[in-house]
Amino acid sequence: MDIFARLAVNIIKEQESIIGPVALEQARKVPGLKLDFQKKEVAFDGNGKEILEKLVEQYKVIFGQASVEVCKDAVRNIISEVPKDQIPNSLQ
Asked: Percentage of the chain with pLDDT > 70?
């Protein structure tokens, strides 16, 4: 699994632990994000950085800045594996 997929899985799992099935509903609304979450798999149809940015934004629109902080916490342990220029602004 590539790093962007790992980031997305971590974000969705963390959101799901807080807001339940709504997390998956919101993630499915993100253009370019393909989910098979029973297998904990995601794929991207497009630019991973942009799609991750849209995922974080989707949660922010519904749940506010607190959800952005949840996203940052969810990826804290692996964000260092992403080249600095590929880290979505919302996760910096």
From this structure: 100
